[in-house]
Structure formats: C-alpha cells, structure tokens
Amino acid sequence: MVAERILPEFNTASISMSKEKGLLLYEDMVLGRLFEDKCAEMYYRGKMFGFVHLYNGQEAVSTGIIRAMRRDQDYVCSTYRDHVHALSAGVPAKEVMAELFGKATGCSKGRGGSMHLFSEPHKLLGGFAFIGEGIPVAMGAAFQSKYRRDALGDTSSDSVTACFFGDGTSNNGQFFECLNMAALWKLPILFVVENNKWAIGMAHERATSQPEIYKKAEVFNMVGVEVDGMDLLAVHSVAEEAVARARAGEGPTLIEALTYRFRGHSLADPDELRSPDEKQFWGARDPIQKFAAYLTEYNLVSSEELKEVDKKVQAIIDEAVKFAESSPEPDPSELYRFVFAEDE
Length: 344
Hints:
The protein is an alpha/beta fold. The protein is built from 11 helices and 7 strands.
C-alpha cells in the first residue's frame, strides 16, 4: 500500500498571502533544497565526512514552522537532520556549509559537523545525533522563558520553542516524559513530529501501536494536530495558531506533519527498502512545486520572479562553498577550547 493514511485537506483559498511573504517563504524552501543538493555533491566529492542526513522533501515543515516564529528571539531545537532547520532559523548558509566542511568559521567552530549545528545568536539549540536528545533541551528553553515571566516578573519574556523530531522518536521515553511535564506547566513549546514514514529502515506502521502520533497528545490534555507536511500553507497556518497559543500562556501543541524524505536516511544509505511506488506517490507532492503553483495560480508572483529567486539562492549556495573551501581548519592549539563555558 502506497499511502496508508489520508493526508488532511486544507483550503488554500482561505489563506491571506502577500507577495512579499510568498517570496520569502518560497526562497526559504528553495534555499533548503539547493543547499542539500550541494551537500550531496560535496559529500560524494570527498569534501564532507561522517554521516550526513539530508532534508529534501521536508522543506515545508521547516519553513512553515520556523518562519511562523520570531527570528533571534524564539528557540529552535533540531535533530541530526538539521541543516535546513538552521537555515530557516537564520544561520547564514556559509556558516552552515563551513561547519559541514569542519572549518573554524563554521557555526559550531568546526567541532560539530553535520549532526551538531549550533548557533547562540540565532537561538538554534543544536542538532543531536541520538534521537530524543533534543526534547529535554527544548523543554528547558521553554521552561526558562515561562520562569522568567512568572517567577522573575519579566513581562518581556514570551519566547516560544519549536522542538523537531521524527516519528521513531515518538516511541521513546523522553517524548512521553517531556510532553507530560510541558502540559503540566503549560510551557510555550511546539513539539513537531516530522513523520516521514521511516525510522532509518523501519516503517512507521510496524514500529508503533498507535501510528497516528498526534492523538498521543490527548493523554496529556494537550492540543494535537495532524497536518499535511507537504503543504507549506497548511503547516504555516497550524504553526501560527500554535505559536500564538504558546505565547499567550495557553501551553504546548503536538504537531504531526505527514511528510517524506526524497533521499535515503543518510548519504550512506542505498535506499533500497522503500518501494518505487511509494517514492513516486510522495515525489509528486513536492512541497516547493506545490507552493510555486499556488503563488502563480493566485497571481501573487510570476514564474519569472520565481526563477530570479532560484538564481539568487544558487548564488548564495555557490558563495557558501567558496567560503567553506577557503576557510581555515580549527587550530590544534584550541583542541580543548569550548569544552567549558568561557567568560565574555
């Protein structure tokens, strides 16, 4: 069976979208896609090492959620598939690329690589190699925001945290424990499940007793929403509501975005487990093509304007590669630096 679950319907005609916002969201998704394509090229050319997990196909989730938040004020906590989350959060493409090259100019000073992107200025709390690792970290960020406001009287403390993880993680203990605590304390956090149907090589339906993850929110008296993760407008609309609810002190939301990765689990994965029919079904729902069609259908932008965005983004990617290649390696004398916090 190609699609065992029906994707939720969403009325695009009900959305109010300006030309400026449409181009911003489109550029964000294209940046993610072209960046990942370039990563694949650089990896196979021997410029990157270790495990590299790409995000192709899931761009509507990153853009839809993160661009509904406030850059540099709200927090984002990622997974080992973290490149595009970092880009959506505002980390410059050249700093992400340099990190993947292991260079000192990378956002993690060349010490994190693909799976451990971090940027304090952009409130990116990190990528995490082990599933579920980031959920308690994200909850801590949400807790401090609420604590500053309620206990310390800081009325300006209204930041929201978005925590991303995959369908396989929803079977782990951190998921249940943190959802319970977040609901009890009404923390301003979005738990975002990127359900791409596969936990490495394990099909989602075979790994859980309740495949509809969003329904698990009911146990914690939490709002749970299922959304078509291949539809940017649907994801963005759900995110705006959840962010507003969190910022108003109404607590967390569990968002299950039904999406699909167009590449294997990692660049070392031959991707032989998924059927051609399944790949074809989801490939036809490419979120970037779908949003581009929406923008032109409603006469918000022209196809020529979209092509200009494509060219602009490609130039950014090309410059990022040049920056990474020309950047210095970390100095061996600083091997033990950044292990502990430093005085500013």
